[in-house]
# Entry
Amino acid sequence: MASDISNLTGGSLLLAWQLKDKHVLIVGGGEVASGRIESVLVADAKITLISPRHGLHPLTKQFIDATDRITYHDRTFAGPQDLDGVDMVLTAIDDVDTSREICALCRAARIPINVADIPPSCDFYFGSQLRRLPLQIMISTNGQSPKLANIVRRKVEESLPEGIENAISKVGQLRG
# Structure
C-alpha cells in the first residue's frame, strides 16, 4: 500500500552546515549582522566583514576587536572581486538593490547566500537557535515568522532538563 506523500511539500531541509575553516563573507555590520557573525564564529569559520564603520553595531565592534578570524573592511560592497575565495555569503544591509545585486553575483558564482529580510533570495534561512553546546536546536518557520520561531525556541528551552549539555558530552565520550 502506497503512502500518501501529498503533504510532503513547503518545507526546508534542516541541517547543520559544517563551516570550520570555511570563508564566509558578511556584508553589513548592524544588529542583524552581529547575530550572523556570532553564529559563524561558533561554527569556526573565517569571516570577511564589509561595512562602513559608522554603521557598526556595538556587538559587531566587539567581535572585530576580539578575534583574528574576522577581516574587516570599512567600506561598502565593491563588486564581484569581493566574492573571490568565498564559500558562503550573508547580507544584512538596508539596501534592497545592493542585496539583490550581491544575490545575483552569488548565484552566478554558485555561492550559497542568505539575504536578510528577502526570503525569496535566500538559499537557506537562519532559524531561532538554542545552543547549549554540544546541543544545538533550530526552530524554523521557513522565513515566514522569525519572531514566532523565537517564542517557540524559548518554550523549548524552558522544557530542557538542567545540565542536558553535560549528559550529551558524557554520552559522546562513551560513544568514542
In short: DSSP finds five helices and seven strands in the chain. The mean pLDDT is 93. The two ends are 41 Å apart (CA to CA).
